[in-house]
Each structure stands twice: as structure tokens, then as C-alpha cells.
Design a protein that fits this description.
single chain, mainly alpha, D-Maltodextrin-Binding Protein, domain 2, 11 helices
Length: 211
Amino acid sequence: MPDGKKNSAKVWKDVNPALPAAKIEVMGPPPTSGTRDAFNELVMEAGCIAADAKMEALKKSDEKAFKARCTKLREDGAYIETGENDNLIVQKLVANPAALGIFGYSYLEENLDKIKDVNLDGVPATYANISSFKYPASRPLYIYVKARQASQPTQLGASIKAYLAEYAKESTWGPKGYLAKRGLVAAPESVRKQAAAAALKLTPLNPAAIK
């Protein structure tokens, strides 16, 4: 919690009187998971700062203390680490409809007949909302290469260019590409075209354009 106190809520009604008196049970990934990193950044940290404006200053002055305060999850059984097996989370959610799960969108999409999403700030977790970043718990994925190395007339330079060309294909990152089959959500077509042009032309990155 932002104030550093232990969270003693046992049922959701303790968190918000409008919620049911169901036991708090959240299943999700371990600290080594990229999904956990994204959840910490987009949900835990954002919620912590929203609850206490002083946390933003703490993040700038002492990031380690900030993360300890804002991203540490409960260890009293309310949060259950399920490893990297998102299918296991889905199975447990089916068995306990009152529980919550944290995992990638593809597992939700594949099981919409069994489970449902959680709206954040009134925005549902749909493909379109994630693709356009309207859903608060969504973020872009970037890859970076050194333009100097990629421009060299060497085997390394040729390999980097070939990798970028492959990555920028619709068959790789399009809605039906193999990255989508690995759980990623494709960016809008206009964004993909702009990124593909930058990758093929080795356009230098403008740090100000990164959100």
C-alpha cells in the first residue's frame, strides 16, 4: 500500500463496500515473468502514484524504495504465484469464478466462453482497445539495433538488416502473424507501416517519440 501499511483486507467488500464479500484470491506470474513486469509498471505503480502523489517524487529520488513500496505483492495467500503456466490460471478461474487472474490477452481471447475480462477505468480488455493502447494495462513492444552496426558492409550488418526485414513483415507482426500466435496483439496498420519503414530505412530513433 502507498502508506507502507500491510493490506489486511480479506474479502473484496473490505476493499470497496460495493463489491461482494468474496475471498480475495488473485493468481498471477512470478517476479521473473515479463507479464509481472508489465503488471507492476502499468497497474501497481500507476495505482500507487494515483493513490499518493508523493510516490511519484519517491520514484525519482529512490526507485528501489518506490518499487518496494508500490510493487510488492501480498504474501498471506491473497496473491498466488502460478509460475509461467497461464493455462493453469485459466483452469483455476473456471473452477473459482470469484478469483482473478493476471496473464496475457491471448489466453483470455481463447477462453472467452469460460472467463471474462476486468475493465480498467471503464475500458474493456478487447483486442481493439489493447492494440490502440486505450486499455490502461497495455504497452508497446520495441526492438532496438545499433544503426552503425547495421550499416556496416559486414556479415553482422547483413544479418541485422535481414532480421529487421523479417520482423517487419505482416507474416511476423500482423494480426495473423506468428507473433500474434505467441500472444502478442498487433498494432494498428498505420503504426505497423510506419515502424516497418523505419526498420527498413534504419531511421534513427527519436527518444522524444517513445511514450
